[in-house]
Amino acid sequence: MKTWVLGAGGAVAAALASSVAPGAYVHSCAEIEDPGPCIQVAGGYPFPFVVDHHLSPANRVDLFSAMTGEGFFVWPPFAADVIFYAGFIALCFIFVRSLDRRPGQ
């Protein structure tokens, strides 16, 4: 049980830490009456989940700006990032366990 809790916590922490990775977020520009797609500065890897509202002075994005309203937090890509990092942590755990159980040592 402790391994699962640490793995899940590590996946969430890794996903939140990945918000410093630059990226782009594409969405509909319906709120500004433009029929085309909008490309905004975003953060998160591999799926950007913290997006700038064009309110930040340097056109930057981070978790703090999302909490203060200068940006917004997109939940589905964040959940996908958590699943991605949970899978990575699980693969690392399985690999380390396989090293411990090699015969003949």
Offer a concise description of the structure.
Helices cover about 45% and strands about 20% of the residues. The chain contains three helices and four strands, in the order αβββαβα. β2 and β3 (about 50) form a beta hairpin.
The chain-level structural class is alpha+beta
Q: What integer value in Å does the Rg equal? A: 18 Å
Shape: elongated
Kindly report the oligomeric state of this protein.
single chain
- What is the mean pLDDT? 83
Strand order of the largest sheet: 1-2-3-4
Tell me the number of strands: 4
Number of self-contained structural domains:
1
Percent in strands: 15-25%
The amount of helix comes to 40-55%
* Residue runs with pLDDT of under 50 for 5 or more positions: none
By DSSP (H or I, 4+ residues per run), the number of helices equals 3
**Through-space gap between termini:** 28 Å
What is the chain-wise order of helices and strands?
HEEEHEH
Largest sheet: 4 strands, antiparallel
